[in-house]
Design a protein that fits this description.
The chain has 755 residues and is α+β, with helices and mostly antiparallel strands. 19% of the residues lie in helices and 32% in strands. The radius of gyration is 28 Å and the shape is globular. The termini are far apart.
């Protein structure tokens, strides 16, 4: 009887503790939103080279309406006050860049007033007028422009009187850079009746800065460098290959405004377009003589890259960014009928300082390599982008990801699926080491049902703590780099209390076409909470390296209990997360990392090695590799599924990227219905020959340039490329089936030579 009473008391105590914990959880305060960071863009000059020689002759072709407003050793800045158009004369080579073609007689060409105003205007504003976007320019009626002189340029306050929108536009020159900016604090929508019922609302949608600067009808030795995937170029030919356009959001689409598509509700491409990971583009008017790099320096997460071919809307090739301040979204009126909705608008424009930098390129820097290297220099000066890891081995690294635990839908609910036990992983790694592959980079990937995400946990079903520690000790003894796969940005299958809300107040979910499941995006303000909750376990097992996935495409604008969470805030949350781990001596490696994350990355996983191969692209180039090589090891997307191994191997060699594979210890069939259903071959015994082939050939080339920066990339001939490295080594890659002779050196068909 006494024992029974004690049991009852104990049970009541347990229930009481659980109730207290539940009540405490209910009243836990969510983290406050982060404050927008201050950005001092004038502290940096990218083109700060000492000018040894200047072309002093005045450019007499500059129209009289353009008055000189600033000058330094490298540049002269001229302004047409009526249109805010500019001319920038490069004193190093005498070339003048105009914000539109001043030699074109627009009346003679019978251009409409609307098109003429758009081409001449330095600033265009896209507004919503009764829900319909429309373009307004500074040459329209009822626009006031008030100028103030600055030491290195000017400020103009632009006041669109009819819609009652005004802001400051600042233009300055610093060294060989032109910097344009619109401070967010200067933007005013001063219509007192804006958003009141019955009012003809006119509000900001987008702002466009100098969309015709660098535009060209044709340039014999010119091209545009576009940030599509790994990078691409489009020749400025007299007749375009295809008259079309290309529009791509920097760092991915803002999913906070988008509706979630159901599977089967809309067709989707078998191969989606490559994402834009670099917030840059380049315009080369004369290769190896004159060009310009353009950087979306602040506001990149709200920037969209635009390429417009000649003969689409004008006679000019165009390349420019637009910046989004407000986007319509669907406010649903019915829970069952998505057709019943109205358009919604956020009241406050997105909060970011727009800063766009033009870096003028001279001589041998005026090419796509120079575009990449000047952007690399910008990252170094602005964010301290330097080498973090150190490779002292004589063989290239090989990356192996293991799927350890997955989940699939069982009879009644989601169930765990064992894909690779800890001992299976150890045995597979041992087989590589026994063959002499001693430079290995291994990642464990585990899905946790309780968190509905890929996080850190030791599973009893995979071997438990004992086997896990044994594996870690084996990796340490054999100098195998080990990191754990983490995805703080997304959960699968089900929403959690951390799931963000779209602007429409719906759960922020997105269709994952790869695995045919829905992903739910977490509010980034919780990322630090996730990190702190994981830290004890990471320290317990001495995990000193993490592999983060999910950040690409996860910057969004969202609704948060009466406030707005902005995508640039999300960037800052992620930067703070990386800093937290780095400060705790934990390396952060990132899959498909966007450029703002480069300063925090030790290794680059899933490095872009192709463009979207759109019809109008002339060449795919290693723009990303040229930016990051030497500062971090770059690894390929999983090569399990390559359809042409010979070409893929040559591509890795050309781009300086190491091979990567994803494996399971159990048969691939075990993960057929899991989140990893897109992995259709994963057992080592079926991939061993392919892995050996990739590793042997890529190592034969890239072992000569381990840790060295890719400093040049040249097309010698059709399908023949030469890469050059900082250590003096060169690699010639021949994609042709037949042999190729270069300066008495024979490069076999589908082969390479290191010289």
């Amino acid at each position: 009887m006494k024992n029974k009473k004690i049991k009852h008391i104990f049970a009541y105590l347990v229930i009481g503790v659980l109730l207290l914990l539940a009540v405490k959880k209910c009243f836990e305060k969510a983290p406050d939103r982060i404050s927008m960071e201050t950005y001092n863009y004038t502290d940096v000059i990218v083109n700060d080279e000492e000018v040894m020689k200047q072309v002093d002759e005045y450019d007499s072709t500059i129209p009289d309406t353009f008055k000189r407003v600033a000058e330094n050793d490298q540049l002269e800045l001229f302004l047409d006050k009526e249109s805010i158009a500019i001319a920038v004369r490069n004193k190093v080579n005498g070339y003048t860049w105009y914000s539109y073609d001043v030699d074109m007689n627009m009346e003679e060409k019978k251009l409409s007033k609307e098109m003429t105003n758009y081409m001449k205007s330095g600033i265009s504003v896209i507004t919503y007028d009764k829900f319909t976007p429309g373009r307004r320019t500074v040459l329209d009626e009822d626009v006031n422009k008030t100028y103030q002189k600055r030491e290195n340029g000017f400020t103009v306050t632009i006041d669109f009187l009819q819609p009652k929108i005004k802001f400051d536009f600042i233009v300055e020159i610093k060294g060989g850079d032109l910097i344009t900016s619109i401070p967010r604090e200067s933007i005013e929508e001063y219509n007192d009746k804006l958003w009141t019922p019955g009012n003809d609302d006119v509000s900001i949608n987008e702002i466009v800065v100098y969309p015709f600067l660098g535009s060209a009808i044709e340039k014999e030795d010119g091209y545009i460098v576009i940030p599509d995937g790994s990078g691409a170029i489009i020749r400025l030919d007299e007749t375009p290959k295809y008259a079309t356009g290309y529009v791509a959001p920097v760092y991915g689409k803002d999913l906070g405004y988008a509706n979630t598509l159901s599977f089967g509700s809309e067709s989707f491409s078998v191969k989606p377009l490559e994402s834009v990971v670099l917030p840059i583009y380049g315009i080369i008017h004369d290769e190896n003589d004159t060009g310009v790099l353009v950087i979306a320096e602040s506001g990149a997460s709200y920037a969209t890259y635009n390429y417009v071919s000649k003969n689409v809307s004008t006679k000019y090739y165009q390349s420019y960014f637009t910046y989004n301040y407000r986007t319509t979204y669907s406010q649903f009126q019915s829970r069952i009928d998505e057709e019943q909705h109205v358009l919604g608008f956020q009241e406050e424009p997105n909060k970011f300082d727009l800063v766009q930098r033009y870096v003028f390129l001279n001589g041998d820097k005026a090419n796509y390599v120079g575009v990449a290297k000047e952007y690399r220099d910008f990252l170094t000066k602005q964010y301290g982008f330097t080498k973090k890891g150190k490779n002292e081995k004589d063989k290239i690294p090989l990356k192996i990801d293991f799927i350890n635990n997955e989940v699939e839908m069982g009879t009644f609910n989601l169930e765990n699926v064992k894909a690779t036990s800890y001992n299976q992983a150890k045995d597979i790694v041992k087989s590589f080491i026994d063959k002499g592959d001693t430079n290995l980079n291994v990642t464990f990937k585990t899905y946790l049902l309780d968190k509905q995400a890929y996080r850190f946990q030791v599973f009893k079903e995979l071997g438990g703590k004992k086997d896990f520690r044994s594996v870690l000790n084996y990796f340490k003894d054999n100098d195998v780099k080990f990191n754990y796969y983490m995805n703080y940005a997304r959960t699968n299958h089900k929403k959690t209390k951390f799931t963000a809300s779209k602007m429409s107040r719906q759960d922020l979910s997105v269709r994952n076409d790869k695995s045919q499941v829905y992903n739910y995006l977490n509010d980034p303000k919780y990322f630090m909470d996730f990190a702190k909750s994981d830290m004890n376990n990471l320290r317990k097992y001495h995990i000193d390296s993490l592999a983060f996935d999910g950040f690409t495409g996860s910057l969004f604008t969202h609704y948060d209990k009466g406030t707005i969470g902005y995508s640039n805030e999300g960037m800052k949350y992620i930067k703070n997360l990386m800093t937290y781990f780095n400060d705790n001596n934990i390396e952060t490696n990132i899959y498909r990392g966007d450029a703002y994350l480069y300063p925090y990355m030790t290794d680059y996983y899933e490095t872009p090695i192709c463009s979207s191969n759109l019809m109008f692209i002339d060449r795919t180039i290693p723009l990303v590799s040229l930016v990051v090589s030497g500062n971090m090891d770059m690894y390929s997307p999983y090569m399990n599924f390559s359809s042409n191994d010979d070409e893929a191997i040559l591509k890795l060699i050309e781009y300086g990227v190491y091979p990567s594979f994803i494996l399971t210890g159990e048969p691939t069939y075990s993960i057929k219905y899991s989140n990893s259903s897109n992995v259709y071959v994963s057992q080592n015994k079926y991939l061993e020959e392919r892995i050996d082939n990739y590793y042997e050939k890529v190592n034969d080339a890239l072992s000569h340039v381990l840790g060295s920066e890719l400093i040049n990339h040249t097309y010698i001939d059709d399908n023949v490329v030469m890469t050059e490295y900082a250590n003096g080594k060169k690699i010639i890659i021949n994609y042709n089936d037949s042999d190729y002779i270069y300066k008495d050196i024979t490069i076999k068909g589908k082969g390479f030579v290191v010289i």
